[in-house]
Design a protein that fits this description.
- The structure is a single chain.
- By secondary structure, this protein is mainly β.
- The chain has 2 domains: about 10-305, 5 Propeller (Tachylectin-2, Chain A); about 325-450, Jelly Rolls (Sandwich), CATH 2.60.120.260.
- Helix content is about 0%, strand content about 45%.
- The strands form 8 sheets. Strands 22, 23, 25, 27, 28 and 30 form a 6-stranded mixed sheet that branches.
- The radius of gyration is 24 Å and the shape is elongated.
- The two termini are about 45 Å apart.
- It binds beta-L-arabinofuranose.
- Beta-L-arabinofuranose binds near residues 30, 31, 215, 268 and 270.
Length: about 450
């Protein structure tokens, strides 16, 4: 089986970092559907590869699926390939069209829904493969689901006891209790394209909502509300948006944007939203490991919150991601949770050379970056270590979540990278968010900080 190996730079990146975005570091991963089974998070992404048949099929090229699991959202186990395009009885073995999947559990069986190119005809169909365990092995059904032509299946298991499948640009239909076909009592409409007539099963849940080139629907239920979340194109790239309803098949009311367009114009975004150990998470993707080709993407995670009325707070994408980092680790401040520039805005990261160095550059003072969830445990460190280089002496300080200054430091000028160990004023314990404030400085580069 062909396996795509990430460029060396990305592998090096993966060796030094943990608990940060992107979370899957050994291969490209996109369209992440996260599900909680048996107390673990299982991640079912699609698997971007560089096309083996370039240039004809450079576009979104995918031949198989892996499944990953984690108990802390930091350490992910790759359980290997769960389905290959060659093993789908009805699929084109060279279609490279195994796009965004989903997986749900019912009565101890795991139903994996995936789009794929058919052996005959054009376009996409959606198949189901069934397993006894989330890790597989998955056995694909002999035929795709009749009545679905499209991509990006998502299954909502609603509190009314039914399962609903969403696909393409917001189409939705009830699933039969067997989970392998559409229910017989779905609404049906006949659509006309010129002289051609086609029967469409189900309803269009995005009818009348902002939905230009919408795809990747992800539906879920929370506190009596149904959420239909989806990417659509705004000014050439996708935003993640959402609508709410009191009924799984709508009508849905548009509520707003969950995540704005990416700054580097990665065209797609695709996501899922899941609750794990009392916290809600947004899984999404970005082309972090392939800055010059946005069809090779990688999965990221950030926290997501709901307001008391059920609406969703917009998520700012971070490189920090989620999960804890130990205070004694090398804490990569370039992968911050939040940033603030007083006055003049400078680029803190080298966007032109994203794989060169992974340090943060403070051109001047009056800037801070915050790195969340550093676990100090009981260690109460007495020293802070900075790996830096700096054109001039700099003054920096640390602040915790409650805005207390817990240390101020004078860093020396140094042309070369240097580790500087300085005493720490207020010992810290437990989980802390640390804000590194650069009060004064000129071209200060910080590779990492740590505590001892
Ligand atoms: O990954 C291929 C396609 O790109 C997905 O099906 C879409 O949702 C978009 O992410």
């Amino acid at each position: 089986m062909k396996r795509f190996i990430l460029p060396l730079a990305a592998l090096l990146l993966s060796c030094g970092l943990f608990a940060q975005n992107p979370v899957i570091k050994g291969l490209y991963s996109a369209d992440p559907t996260a599900r909680v089974f048996n107390g673990k998070v299982y991640l079912f992404p699609s698997h971007d590869i560089i096309s083996p048949v370039e240039p004809e099929r450079r576009w979104f090229c995918m031949e198989d699926y892996h499944v990953f699991s984690s108990e802390d959202l930091v350490n992910w186990t790759d359980h290997g390939v769960i389905l290959d395009q060659k093993d789908v009885p009805w699929g084109n073995p060279e279609g490279y069209s195994m796009w965004a999947p989903d997986c749900v559990e019912k009565d101890g069986k795991y139903y994996f829904y995936f789009p794929n190119a058919s052996k005959v005809g054009r376009g996409f169909a959606v198949g189901v493969a069934i397993a006894d365990r989330p890790e597989g092995p998955y056995v694909p059904q002999p035929e795709p689901i009749e009545g679905i032509n499209g991509i990006d299946p998502c299954v909502l298991q609603a509190s009314d006891g039914n399962a609903y499948i969403f696909w393409g640009n917001g189409r939705c239909a009830k699933l039969d209790p067997s989970m392998t076909k559409l229910a017989d009592d779905n609404p049906k409409t006949t659509m006309k394209w010129g002289n051609r007539e086609m029967e469409m099963v189900g309803v269009n849940c995005l009818q009348g909502l902002p939905s230009r080139q919408a795809e990747g629907p992800f539906a879920f239920e929370k506190d009596g509300n149904f959420y239909l979340t989806y990417p659509y194109v705004k000014e050439n790239t996708e935003v993640l948006a959402y609508a709410m309803s009191k009924s799984p098949m709508g009508p849905y009311e548009y509520k707003g944007i969950i995540m704005e367009r990416s700054q580097n114009e990665c065209w797609t975004n695709h996501h899922s939203i899941v609750e794990y150990k009392g916290q809600w998470y947004l899984f999404y993707h970005h082309n972090d490991y392939s800055p010059n080709f946005d069809k090779n993407r990688s999965v990221r995670i950030d926290k997501i919150s709901f307001l008391p009325d059920g609406t969703i707070e917009q998520v700012t994408p971070t490189l920090r991601g989620v999960g804890e980092t130990k205070a004694t680790d090398h804490i990569q401040m370039d992968r911050y949770s939040a940033v603030y520039h007083y006055g003049i805005y400078d680029d803190l990261l080298d966007a032109a050379n994203p794989f060169e160095g992974f340090y943060i550059h403070f051109a001047r003072g009056n800037t801070w970056v915050r790195y969340d969830e550093i676990n100090f445990g009981e260690i109460a460190p007495t020293k802070a270590i900075f790996r830096i280089r700096s054109a001039a002496p700099a003054k920096v300080s640390f602040q915790t979540r409650d805005e207390k200054i817990v240390g101020t430091f004078d860093l020396p000028a140094s042309k070369d990278w240097k580790e500087v160990k300085l005493p720490f004023e207020t010992p810290l314990t437990g989980m802390q968010n640390i804000k590194l404030i650069v009060d004064e400085g000129k071209d200060l580069d910080v590779d990492w900080i740590s505590f001892e």
